[in-house]
Amino acid sequence: QLQKDLEEVKELLTKATRKRLRDVLMTEKHKLELEIKNQPPPKPKDVAEEEKSSLGGYTVKINNYGWDQSDKFIKIYISLNGVQKLPAENVQVNFTERSFDLLVKNLNGKNYTMTFNNLLKPISVEGSSRKIKTDTVLVMCRKKREEKWECLTQVEKESKEKEKAAYDTSDPSEGLMNLLKKMYAEGDDEMKRTINKAWVESREKQSKGDIPMDI
Predict the structure, then answer these.
(1) Strand 110-116 relative to strand 58-61: parallel, antiparallel, unpaired?
(2) CA atoms of 146 and 71, how far apart (whole Å)
(3) Where is the composition biased (Basic and acidic residues) (predicted)?
(4) The pTM is what?
(5) 59-143 — its CATH code?
(6) Which distant-in-sequence residues (6+ apart) come within 8 Å of 42 by Cβ?
């Protein structure tokens, strides 16, 4: 498109007689020539088609994984059937100090992605890598400091702390009440009947002054 614009400007220059118009056209001509010069070279058709096919198809977000740790590494295991058959360049992981992105291209006609943001602690970008095993991708995050991680991300840590705070109060009866509410909300009918019975018996004992509220 730029080349066509340039040809048209050159055509107009041959017909222009007024200096002001010629100056404008010359400026536009130089501008177009510069844009064309700075354009990236076109990719060969076969390369462009290959890239298109490798990124084409359905993209699946990976949510299931397992993880483990050693003194030096956080290890994330992602199960993907047949991943070992792919060319190595089709399994890409980009690391930053507190995150990583995994992209698996063209596995059985699909692309697979996984993103971890806000890792609990900093990792070494240079020391981190990925390994391809039978039906598994292993992401190796090199710890900057050799210390145990209680979870993978900062979000997980905050969620655990909030949950702990809800049931860890200075008032034992308040903590017990919170725990009972959670059990009642998540329990089946049998669990609810058991909790109701215990609650009634506890209230009766408390009203008689036998014992403080307890179960």
Answers:
(1) parallel
(2) 5
(3) 43-52
(4) 0.52
(5) 2.60.40.790
(6) none
What is the C-alpha to C-alpha distance for residues 84 and 133, in angstroms, rounded to an integer? 6
Q: What is the pLDDT of residues 59-106, one digit of tens each?
A: 899 988 999 999 999 999 999 999 999 999 999 999 999 999 999 999
pLDDT in tens, 104-136: 999 988 999 999 888 999 999 999 999 999 999
Q: Which residues 6+ apart lie within 8 Å of 122 measured at CB? A: 97, 98, 144, 145
Pairing of strands 73-79, 66-69: antiparallel
pLDDT, tens digit, 9 for 90 and up, residues 5-29: 778 878 887 877 788 888 888 888 8
List every span in the chain annotated with CATH 4.10.860: 1-38
Residues with Cβ within 8 Å of residue 107, at least 6 apart in sequence:
80, 82, 83, 86, 90
